[in-house]
Write a structure and sequence with these properties.
Largest sheet: 4 strands, mixed
Number of helices: 4
Strand order of the largest sheet: 1-2-3-4
Order of helices and strands: EEHEHHHE
Helix content: 25-40%
């Protein structure tokens, strides 16, 4: 049964955590397929990550296919370690660099290539 006021079943939805740095600066979508369209709806040419960017987020990170939970945890952990500046605050301007460094760590740990390249950065 759908929740009041919501068009979907709230029990089956994925929680998306959004970190606001300065007026919709950054979103990290770690769920599966957040940068993929739906082949069953070819007239819908926008995916979730693009929708977030069109909604005002300057930087969005999403995944292109199924995400291994352990690999996603490694990426997210390393990503945020690299994104926090010396004062302990998130500096979203470095999101692409932080993602690159997180992926590079996967490469050094011999993680399968398809899991290394699943996340993409969209934006400035």
């Amino acid at each position: 049964m759908a929740s009041p006021g919501l068009p979907w079943n709230a029990k089956s939805t994925v929680t998306i955590r959004i970190f606001f740095c300065h007026n919709l600066e950054f979103a990290f979508l770690s769920a599966c397929h957040t940068t993929m369209g739906d082949e069953n709806s070819p007239d819908e040419s926008i995916h979730l990550a693009a929708a977030m960017q069109f909604s005002g987020f300057h930087r969005v990170i999403g995944s292109m296919w199924s995400v291994d939970d352990n690999v996603a945890q490694q990426v997210v952990s390393t990503f945020y370690d690299k994104l926090v500046d010396d004062s302990g605050r998130l500096d979203c301007r470095w999101a692409a660099v932080a993602l690159h460094q997180a992926v590079k760590k996967l490469w050094c740990n011999n993680v399968a290539l398809e899991q290394q390249i699943m996340f993409v950065h969209i934006g400035v």
